[in-house]
Amino acid sequence: MRAVLAISRGIDALNAAIGRSVKWLILVAVLLSAGNAVVRYSFNVSSNAWLEAQWYLFSAVFLLCAGYALLRDEHIRIDILTARLSGRTRAWIDIFGTLLFLLPCAVLITLLSWPVFVDSYLRGEMSSDAGGLLRWPAKLLIPVAFGLLALQGVSEILKRIAFLAGHAPDPRRHVPHGADGAAPVEQVS
């Protein structure tokens, strides 16, 4: 079980590091947007590349932080229905929900979006807007992000199995909210 929890901690650390890094792109997008607005209204100069860069940055934050949101248990839940259930019952619901919905969708999107990225990369696809950017970096975000989300789903399943087996605390009660992201999974005697 230690090896399983080590794998889970590794996945958690990966998504925590990516989430902590990528969230700074929000500041970059805000500064880029403000700079673009100042230049556009002050000097009557604009560029589609600047607008597309803002979209790419927002897309990167939204997509790449999905696994981080799952790690921190900050995604949408129907807690009003599950709040009164025991930790074990919630763990089973999380396991089945992840196996039946999250993982199949994340893996399918990862697999289906990869050829779209490869095609865009090989063709050197550019935006159809004048002065636009390359499209493949934005298209690469999709398989990478859903791959990270799938990995985090696996980590969440491993933590819940360890909890059900009595080798770890309830993952829902030990959600990492510190600045460093992922807290180590504690051993339960």
TrEMBL record:
Protein name per Swiss-Prot or TrEMBL: TRAP transporter small permease protein
Keyword tags: Cell inner membrane, Cell membrane, Membrane, Transmembrane, Transmembrane helix, Transport
Annotated localization: Cell inner membrane
Key word Coiled coil present: no
Family the entry assigns: Belongs to the TRAP transporter small permease family.
Protein function: Part of the tripartite ATP-independent periplasmic (TRAP) transport system.
GO CC entries: plasma membrane
UniProt source species: Rhodovastum atsumiense
